[in-house]
Amino acid sequence: MIGARAIRVLILAGLLTLPLAAQHPVNGGNPPHQQSKTGAPRAPRLGDWLQAHKDLPPDQQEKLLENDPGFKHLTPQRQAELKERLRKFNNLPLKQRADAIRRMQYWDRLSPAQRKLVKDAHQQIQTLPVPRRLEVHKALRKLVRMSPDQRQQTFDSADFKNTFSDQEQTILKNLAGINSLAQNGSPEPH
């Protein structure tokens, strides 16, 4: 589920879409997971760079980053920002790093429309009083574990309509299908 912390972690995404050709000279410059089923290269996915280099010591990661052709074309300011993000990432506990990579890969599977929906919903949630935010997050955690039919039954229930405002209902309906991706691995159409 995408929450406030996850959105902040996704800021690392700028680091993750760099070309990987410099680090993977085989397979036309793309690691095996970077090729489509037809063998054609595909665009790097969020989290791929970190996933591919997560086991390297931070100094080696930074060296690989500095040697990446995509990185070399960035402004010095942007290069410094990405290096700092990499350092911050490497200072996270192992579980948080794995969670961050998982969330980045989740984010990458979303369509641009779904990403906008998540960002907009996150902004709307931030306008809610803290107790309501907690209730919305609690309900969302339950909803994403449900099948689409169970979710629809919940949305149609009097209890749901009496518990949540119109704004909260819209947020929950919009996010529940998208966040079920974390449970089943593919976004639901909407």
How does this model look, in words?
The protein is an all-alpha fold and 190 residues long. It has 2 domains: 4-109, no CATH class; 112-184. It has 13 helices and no strands. The longest helix is centred in the middle third of the chain and has 16 residues, at 94-109. The chain is elongated and about 60 Å long.
Mean pLDDT figure: 75
Total tally of structural domains: 2
Tell me the fraction of residues in β-strands, as a range: under 5%
Low-confidence stretches: 1-37, 185-190
| Helix/strand/pairing category | mainly alpha
Got a strand count?
0
Rg calc:
19 Å
Q: Give the proportion of residues in helices.
A: 55-70%
Q: Quote the distance from N terminus to C terminus.
A: 17 Å
What's the shape?
elongated
Oligomer: single chain
The number of helices is 13
Layout of SSEs?
Layout: H1 4-9, H2 13-16, H3 48-53, H4 58-67, H5 69-72, H6 76-90, H7 94-109, H8 112-126, H9 130-144, H10 148-156, H11 158-163, H12 166-179, H13 181-184
Helix pairs in contact: 4-6, 8-12, 9-12
